[in-house]
Amino acid sequence: MKEKAYRTASNCRHYAMCKIDYLGTGLCASGPERGFVTFYPQGRMDLYKALVDGTVPVTPAAVEAAATCTLCGICDRQCCFVTELRPQSVMHALKEHIAGHVSANGEPASPDEDEFILALKRITGEKYSSCDPAVLVCYSHDPCPVAPPRMPKYAAVPKTADEVAAIVKLCAEHSVPYAVRGNGSSVMGFVMSEGLVIDLIRMKEISFDERNYKVRVGPGVTSYELQKEALARGFRINAAEPAAMVCANIMCSGIFSLFSASYGINADNLVTAGFVGKDGKRFSMHDHDSPNLFAYSKEDRELPGICIWAEVKLHRIPEDETGVLVPFEDLKDAVAFARELSFRRIGTGIGILGGEYISVFMSPSIELAEKIKNVFTRTLKINYPVLVIGDKYDIEAVRSIKPGVIDNDLFRTLFLGLPSLAKPEWPDLIAQMCGDKKPYEFLSEQSIRPLIEAALDPSPENIASAFPEDLRGFFGQVYEEPAMTDLVKLNELRILSSRMGREKHVLAIIVYTPADPEIIAILNEGFDAIGLKNNIRHDYGFVTPLDFGKRAVFEYDYYLDHTDPAERGKAGAALGDIAAFIGRFSSEHPDVKWIRYTLYQGFARKEHILYAD
Amino acid sequence: MPIENSRSFFITGGTGFLGSYLVAALCRKNYQITLSVRPKNGYDAETRVRRAAEWFGLTEDEISNISIGDHCHQGQEIIHCASDTDFAERNRREIEASNLQYLEEVLKMAKSKSASRFHYLGTAYSAGAVEGDCPEELTYPEKFTNVYEETKNRAERKAYDFCKNNGIKLSIYRPSIVYGESGTGRSRKFNALYYPVKAISFIKEIMLKDILEKVGKRAEALGVKLKEGGKLVMPIRLKSISGGKLNLIPVDFFTKAMTAIIEKNTEDGIFHIVNSGAGDLNELIEYTSEYFGIEGLKVVNGDEGEIKDKNGLEQLFESYVKMYLPYIADRRVFLTDRTAPLLESENIYCPKMNYDIFKRCMDYAVASGWKDHM
Ligand SMILES: Cc1cc2nc3c(=O)[nH]c(=O)nc-3n(C[C@H](O)[C@H](O)[C@H](O)COP(=O)(O)OP(=O)(O)OC[C@H]3O[C@@H](n4cnc5c(N)ncnc54)[C@H](O)[C@@H]3O)c2cc1C
Ligand code: SF4
Predict the structure, then answer these.
(1) Residues of chain B above pLDDT 90, percent
(2) B149, B239, B316: which to substitute to probe chain A, counting the most A Cβ within 10 Å?
(3) Over the stretch B145-187, which tens digit does the pLDDT of each residue have?
(4) Residue A124: which of A230, A200, A237 has the closest Cα?
(5) Edge-first strand listing for the sheet containing A537-546
(6) Could you tell me which residues are beta bridge partners of residue A215?
(7) Best residue in A428, A429, A446, A452 for a mutation probing chain B (most B CBs within 10 Å)
(8) Which structural domains are found in chain A, ordered by start?
(9) How far is CA B241 from the centre of its chain?
(10) Longest Cα–Cα distance in chain B
(11) pLDDT at B106 over 70
């Protein structure tokens, strides 16, 4: 029991999905109340592991973290949906551990407080700054294979921009280094510091200005929260990972998503933004005398300031919008097709997925994903489905260029019938009966739909049967909601994508590249070879064309068990090879650029990133 | 101690469907066999051979006649069974690699090891898209039904030219469509004849489930009904052409025939291993309907063109039938001037397909869950 809890706790990926209410369960109540990650399921998992490892002692914050868990079971549902982990066992174990300690040793004493923490508390209020190791340890590490843990001395969760400015000044006065943190889901060691971690989660301002097609957000607003609000008003924002804070996501990777095919990346995503500079003074991007955050250079840069608000662009949504998957066997054909669509301004969202993504995203379990990947790639020959989201004119155009698409109805049938699809009889039948047609062309024929439906028996209960028995009733209800199987909604809200890190933590390598099938194929082969050489699981991620088919963003993924030192070592070695490979390749092809330099230059104009040498 | 047979064979494709039957038969006759086998589906070469031997019930003594190796010995006979039986044009590259490029490698080996005879396992359908008599000779048809026929025809010619130029004796064997064992119904593979039958049985199962466990909406959309006595009506019209035949041979006949030819024939030659009493699609549909308790399957004459207003089930079968029509409604007649006298002298005759044989074969396939024993 304890061992299982420890294993679960060690396997938390820090993707922060327990910090957004994406299944309608509500949130772990103590999280929003206290702010610190320690009071969310993710933090309690880290805390339990640290207590068992002896990294931190039982402290007042540890006691409080255990006591404020009501064993409501929300985290079990949320985490199981994405990772198959069941955190509730950890919560039981944590409570038991703390109760055992307190009954043997009495209530723990508070840690000593220095001048800095007292000043910090004066700024944020007593509750929202801490030097308690049980709080700090949850900010001390992430699964990145090349970022060793760093225990901060302090953590703060400010509420207002004034508090942020005062904290920055205080740090300058005391020469305390700091890291700024959204939800920490960049998982590359960026949000750690030996000094102070400023966690912006409580800064949740959202105010719409529909007349000017923009919404002002605080740095604690996640993509999911903002997208939900925008959709309720008939608008959409360009959002990527749902648990990522919008401001952090812009600062870190510039927000690339399938919608970047039309909404763009980096500065395209916003109207303007406000910052607290290193000196604690504020500036806005649109001021004449502010630092030039639109600029970009191909080098590692420092944090230019803390983003305290951003005015994010709102996009209108046509009523007849829908999504289709256009299957391809070959990557180059898929890239050429996606580039053509982008060039001809067809489709709002375009992305070339791989067999890995589509099967992992759709499947509730690792076991099912493995089977479904085989069905998609080996049997149905759907190696590279191009997902296109667009209005009815876009979709008509797509169909006329490439007949044989998987429309949303068929997608829903496959999705809700996934456990039946994994049984070999049905896909084999399709493959055998398709004659000289491609299996996926055959699959998409309207006339055989009733047969497919009868064979797959698509229903919320069927897909729910892939979840653990005790959660099937709950997930059956979740899948009653049409949005759960709607290609447009799934991409706007992106609630499935973090499943990519379910089997193992994912290390995403992202490059901007010409939308050239040959170049992308060579890059893909190069990344593939590095995975093979280092004996680390690896797979194609996705490609999205940018800027009318001139450029593209390409993600390739490596997977590692971050709890295994040997795998961390291999991933570290692979990263070295990747850096060398991209370095070599981009010296021959200067248009190929690694996203690593976007960190802290995320507000740059995309033109400076994509087109300047 | 088994008596060692003086002839010895290097065999490619010896774990495939026909190859494995041949290997088992030759082993039982104590011929010495070298098998070229690659690891597949997570099984190493040795395990694949052993699994096949177990399925055939070979004794340890018989198995001891087999060795595994990539190269033939000096003077050994070569039996080249390896082949890709895929018809799909989209897989041309793989089919050519297997049916032509690999053959070329094996022919070169035959030359370098002075093979005493080259036995090439072809197909009756290398005759190409023709009608009427197909002799036991090399043919040069203008058109082929598909890439399989084309590559198998090119392969015969390649083998012929190569062997002629290098003084290697050559036998070419051309079976028609092979199904399981006529006496027991056993088979290691359920393709060809089995596919459409399996499709019918699978569709029947899901339609019944839809009718009995759901409200039957999908079955209704496809025009499928459950009749009072339990028979399921599946309205499927299959296109055929007048005078079209279906040439099926059981694998036990194939094995006996090919083994006999290997043992008795001393000349170069081409041998049609076919059924002189070929049946037709109507018979097969009759057997299938009877076996699965189905009504509504029927053959329509497609001489005048396509079937109009196809329903979903007909659409499902359309691509399949289109691809296999040349085999299920075939106007080719395979002559057996060379083969028939030889087989008759050995008392080897091909049984005509009938309901009993069909039932035995399907019983075995159903009991195997339609999963190949490969
Ligand atoms: C499974 C997975 C899939 C992903 N897919 C995508 C994708 O498709 N597209 C994409 O664009 N990204 C993607 N990401 C990357 C990730 O979402 C972003 O890097 C995002 O920044 C994480 O948000 P966060 O709030 O957790 O940021 P954090 O990890 O907390 O911070 C990221 C960086 O931004 C800095 N920062 C945070 N807040 C501020 C602020 N207010 N002002 C200044 N600096 C700040 C931090 O110091 C840090 O360096 C993915 C990540 C995961 C785990
Ligand atoms: S069980 Fe505890 S940690 Fe999990 S969501 Fe409920 S209160 Fe939060």
Answers:
(1) 76
(2) B316
(3) 999 999 999 999 999 999 999 999 999 999 999 999 999 999 9
(4) A200
(5) A322-326, A386-390, A349-353, A537-546, A551-560, A505-514, A593-594
(6) A208, A312
(7) A429
(8) 2-105 (no CATH), 206-316 (3.30.465.10), 321-499 (no CATH), 504-613 (3.30.70)
(9) 22
(10) 70
(11) yes
Q: Report phi then psi at B11, rounded to 5.
A: -120, 130
* Mean pLDDT, range A240-252, rounded to an integer: 98
Residue A274 pairs with which residues in a beta bridge? A284, A309
Q: Tell me, what's the ipTM?
A: 0.76
Tell me which residues have their CB closer than 6 angstroms to ligand 2: A 28, 41, 44, 69-75, 87-88, 91
Evaluate if residue B368 carries a pLDDT over 80.
yes
Cα B14 to Cα A443, B21, B24, B35, B123: the distances in Å are 35, 8, 9, 6, 17
Residues of B with CB under 8 A from a CB of A: 87-90, 146, 195, 198-199, 202-203, 206-207, 209-210, 214, 217-219, 221-222, 310-313, 315-324, 370
Place of tokens 């490969």: B374
Atom 4 of ligand 2, nearest CA residue:
A75
Ligand 1 centroid from CA B221, angstroms: 49
Give the distance (Å) from ligand 2 centre to CA of residue A8: 14
End-to-end CA distance of chain B: 30
CA of A424: which chain B residue's CA is closest?
Answer: B371
pLDDT for res B5: 67
The beta-carbon neighbor of B218 closest among A432, A442, A453 is: A453
Q: Which of residues 433-492 of A touch B (CB under 8 A)?
A: 433-438, 442, 445, 447-451, 453-455, 457
Report the separation in Å between the CA atom of A88 and the middle of ligand 2, taken as the mean of its atom positions: 7
pLDDT at position B331 is: 93
CA–centroid distance, residue A91 to ligand 2 (Å): 7
Name the one residue in this structure whose structure tokens are 């190696």.
A383
Domains and CATH numbers, chain B: 8-183+248-276+333-351 (3.40.50.720), 184-247+277-332+352-374 (no CATH)
Model pTM score: 0.89
Nearest residue to B327 (alpha-carbon basis) of B264, B240, B232, B259: B240
Q: Of A425, A445, A457, which is closest to B315 when you measure between CB atoms?
A: A445
How far apart CA A224 and CA A56 sit, in angstroms, is 33
C-alpha angle A378-A384-A390 in degrees, rounded to nearest 5 = 135
- Report whether A244 contacts A185 (CB < 8 A): yes
Average pLDDT for chain A: 96
pLDDT tens, position by position, B40-69: 888 899 999 999 999 999 999 999 999 999
The candidate with the shortest Cα–Cα distance to A110, out of A94, A131, A141, A136, is A131
Question: In residues, how long is chain B?
Answer: 374
Which residue's C-alpha comes closest to atom 2 of ligand 2? A69
In this structure, the residues whose C-beta lies within 6 A of any atom of ligand 1 are A 15-16, 179-187, 190-191, 200, 219, 240-241, 244-245, 247-249, 251-253, 255-257, 303, 306-307, 497-498, 500-501, 506
Ligand 2 midpoint to CA A68 (Å):
8
Angle among Cα A220, A222, A228 to the nearest 5 degrees reads 130
Residue nearest to atom 6 of ligand 2 (CA): A72
**In the predicted structure, residue B309 carries a pLDDT above the cut 80:** yes
**Residue to test with chain A: of B194, B202, B212, B366, most A Cβ within 10 A:** B202
Residue of A432, A433, A451 lying closest to B312 (CB–CB): A451
Chain centroid to CA B93: how far?
21
| Least confident window among A333-347, A577-591, B298-312, B334-348 | B298-312
Per-chain mean pLDDT for chain B: 93
**DSSP for A229-274?**
HHHHTTEE----STTSBHHHHHHHH----TTHHHH-SGGGGEEEEE
